[in-house]
Design a protein that fits this description.
binds magnesium ion, single chain, five-stranded mixed beta sheet, alpha+beta, binds cytidine-5'-monophosphate
């Protein structure tokens, strides 16, 4: 049993800037005047989640499959990146069962508590996983990194 379990871990961070929509877990955080400067839509949560899933299979990382130098990926919806990588994992490694996902988002403002359920519901949809298996915590940096957003994600899954 224990030999069929795989843990995965991923993280991502971006600098924040004005005039960009802040997207977290494929959800638009409407009241944020700042968004993540990035080549794609800057969704740190989905990027860290994709890396966590890839890492569980020792399959390199998101930049290996979606190099930032490719113009096609500019402004890309990160949900499409996650879906493509899930397909890729299944193709290369076969099917797997995801058991739970644990996420920490570090952002000084705005407060994100009101978005917790919307983000968990969207992730549940993308991962075909019950929301009860998706833990989502928010932290400030205590002012140490005000112009910055970071996501850390662990996943637990099993292979047949
Ligand atoms: O980082 P700190 O421990 O001060 O955060 C206190 C609480 O504020 C967190 O436990 C979380 O519930 C909430 N929070 C939030 N949105 C953020 C940062 C923190 O809702 N962007
Ligand atoms: Mg990123």
């Amino acid at each position: 049993m224990i030999d069929s379990l795989r843990i995965g871990y991923g993280e991502d961070a971006h600098a924040l800037a004005r005039g960009i929509n802040l997207i977290i877990g494929n959800v638009w955080i409407k009241e944020s005047p700042l968004g993540a400067q990035a080549h794609s839509d800057g969704d740190v949560l989905l990027h860290a989640l994709a890396d966590a899933l890839l890492s569980a299979f020792a399959m390199a990382d998101i930049g290996h499959y979606f190099p930032p130098s490719v113009p096609d990926y500019k402004g890309m919806d990160s949900a499409r990146i996650l879906e493509a990588l899930l397909e890729r994992i299944k193709l290369e490694k076969g099917s797997f069962q995801l058991h739970n996902v644990a996420i920490v988002i570090t952002l000084d403002s705005p407060k994100l508590g009101n978005y917790r359920e919307a983000i968990r519901t969207r992730l549940a949809d993308l991962l075909r996983l019950e929301p009860a298996r998706i833990g989502l915590s928010f932290k400030t940096s205590e002012g140490l990194a005000p112009g910055h957003i970071q996501a850390r994600v662990t996943v637990l899954l099993s292979v047949p």
